[in-house]
Design goal:
By secondary structure, this protein is an alpha/beta fold. The chain has 2 domains: 13-125, Chitobiase, domain 2; 131-485, Glycosidases (TIM Barrel), CATH 3.20.20.80. The protein is 31% helix and 19% strand. It is built from 17 helices and 21 strands. Strands 8-9-14-15-16-17-18-21 form an 8-stranded parallel barrel, surrounded by 6 helices. Strands 1, 2, 3, 4, 5, 6 and 7 form a 7-stranded mixed β-sheet that branches. A two-stranded antiparallel sheet has the order 10-11. Helix 1 (37-47) packs parallel to helix 2. It is globular. Bound molecules: acetamide. Acetamide binds at residues 308-309, 358, 375.
Length: 537
């Protein structure tokens, strides 16, 4: 019997059913049930075959069937020499199945005449988690829209279903907002960029590259990205980070700031800046206006309001903010931050959308109906889940793909945050913290890998930092992560697929025990979350 195909993520159930194969050729017909036409287009593209529509029951066809009893992202694929049948509840499941079929095709033998023989398999598959995400920070570095399309394709290949776009930050505003043109005329551009890693603000020894950097996406470009993502079963979640991380907006419209010092330009260094929004009604109206345009472009259920890293010094020092706090009867600047977010969360909820924000929001009481993204650790997420909030896990220790993928003293890599997070570490991660009671665990929607791009100036480097860690996370989120060496073996084949897709992945940790791992001790590759891998290959 042939070996199991090397699919990533591994399907929940897969059996090889025979030695032969199904022959897919440029004349193989496609039989469809009504409503599945958009999936046909995706299949033609992914399988790179014309797949003419069959008018009758043709032998050897690819058949798409509907089975409403299946879960929305579940699917079955049955390949026999007589044809291939894909069954799903609707386009959602069929889109995911198309990605699995595409990987199966890579396992097939080309016949030299444009066709390929695909192994006989039965696959019955469904994901463990409903939020299988990837964050890309387009504020710290701007990337061409074409790259975001490629990132969507790569996420879909790994059966992920969320692309979180971090659209605004101190270093750049990246979304066209028609009502406030200066956000992109001024806020999308910085004079230069810090060279090297993080330095504190105004460090006199900081070195800059002297090169202006910036760019933004038009609403038309973002709408096209959303449509492209939807055609692959991916929802785009936009983030407008408020009320901190707003220096680019304040540089464009100084009246949004606290007017304590001359307005500063768009930030050229990394880290947390002190400049935050003021709490005037006019500023809240600005935020509502921006969100109104965001809602026009992004139809998905979730809108991210940020809420992380809000230094309160300006609010403490501003007589006007202190007066407003008294008017509102709020006891502290933290309560004011919570109030600010609540105004905007209610704005979104009233329009049928779901607010989501970073875990600092928990500190003063998360607005009702707000989903929490737990980044400082997993505890915030666990606490929110116990309180009945939905949670997406993004603990930076395990899911920020900003640090080295291997020991930089042993493997040469581009400059990264000075810690190590290997693919094996990510593979060992599980989104539901141990000990969480089942009613709270049910609120853990899933997790996402985060590509913060301070030290990733090019698209190539983003890909290098994302892969292969994202492959590991995809399998964790699909719910089939198991034995690391078995995954690593499959992954080696999968990485060839990525290379063919013009992706240059970073280094993989070796799978053999290290010299330091004595006889009888487990290989650390299969060890616990967060463990440093010290194996030699
Ligand atoms: C974050 O990393 N400040 C969400």
């Amino acid at each position: 019997m042939p070996a199991l195909p090397h699919l990533v993520p591994r399907p929940a159930s897969m059996t090889v059913t025979g030695p032969g194969g199904w022959h897919l050729t440029p004349t193989t017909p496609l039989r469809l049930e009504p409503g599945l036409e958009p999936v046909a287009e995706l299949l033609r593209e992914l399988l790179d075959q014309p797949l003419p529509r069959a008018t009758a029951d043709t032998p050897g066809a690819l058949t798409l069937r509907t089975e409403p009893a299946l879960a929305p992202e579940a699917y079955r694929i049955e390949v026999t020499p007589a044809g291939a049948t894909v069954t799903a509840a609707g386009p959602g499941g069929h889109r995911i199945a198309a990605q699995t079929l595409r990987q199966l095709l890579d396992e097939g033998r080309p016949d030299g005449r444009g066709g390929v023989s695909v192994p006989c398999v039965d696959i019955a598959d469904a994901p463990r988690f409903g939020w299988r995400g990837l964050l890309i920070d387009v504020a710290r570095h701007f990337f061409p829209i074409e790259f975001l399309h490629k990132l969507v394709d790569l996420a879909a290949l790994h059966r992920l279903n969320v692309l979180h776009l971090h659209l605004t930050d101190d270093q750049g505003w990246r979304m066209e907002i028609e009502k406030y043109p200066r956000l992109t005329e001024v806020g999308a551009w910085r004079a230069e960029t810090l060279v090297g890693r993080y330095t504190f603000q105004d460090d006199p020894d900081a070195v800059f590259d002297g090169t202006p950097h910036g760019g933004y996406y038009t609403k038309a470009e973002l709408r096209a990205l959303v449509a492209h993502a939807a055609s692959r079963g991916i929802t785009v979640v936009p983030e407008i980070d408020l009320p901190g991380h707003m220096r680019a907006a304040i540089a464009a419209y100084p009246e949004l700031g606290n007017d304590l010092e001359p307005a500063r330009p768009v930030c050229t260094t990394w880290g947390i800046t002190e400049q935050i929004l003021n709490v005037e009604e006019s500023t809240l109206q600005f935020c509502r206006d921006v969100l109104t345009e965001v809602l026009e472009v992004f139809p998905g259920p979730y809108v991210h309001l940020g809420g992380d890293e809000v230094p309160k010094r300006e609010w403490r020092q501003s007589p006007r903010v202190q007066q407003r706090m008294r008017e509102l009867g709020l006891p502290s600047e933290s309560a004011l931050a919570a109030w600010f977010t609540r105004q905007l969360a209610e704005f979104l909820t009233a329009r049928g959308r779901r607010p989501i924000g970073w875990d600092e929001l928990l500190e003063d009481g998360l607005p009702a109906g707000t989903t929490l993204m737990s980044w400082r650790d997993e505890e915030g997420g666990a606490q929110a889940a116990r309180l009945g909030h939905d949670v997406v896990m993004t603990p930076h220790q395990l899911l920020y793909f900003t640090v080295y993928q291997a020991d930089p003293d042993r493997v040469e890599q581009p400059l990264a945050v000075a810690e190590v997070l290997t693919t094996a570490d990510v593979y060992a991660y599980r989104p539901v913290p141990p000990g969480l009671p089942p009613n709270a665990a049910a609120h853990i929607l899933g997790a996402q890998g985060c590509l913060w791009t301070e030290l990733m100036p090019t698209a190539r480097q983003v890909e290098y930092m994302a892969f292969p860690r994202l492959c590991a996370l995809a399998e964790v989120l699909w719910g089939t992560a198991g034995d690391y060496p078995e995954f690593a073996f499959r992954l080696t084949k999968h990485l060839r697929r990525l290379t063919r897709l013009n992706v240059t992945p970073g280094p993989l940790p070796p799978t053999r025990p290290a010299v330091a791992t004595g006889p009888g001790r487990p290989c650390p590759c299969q060890g616990s979350v967060g463990q440093q891998i010290s194996c030699v290959g």
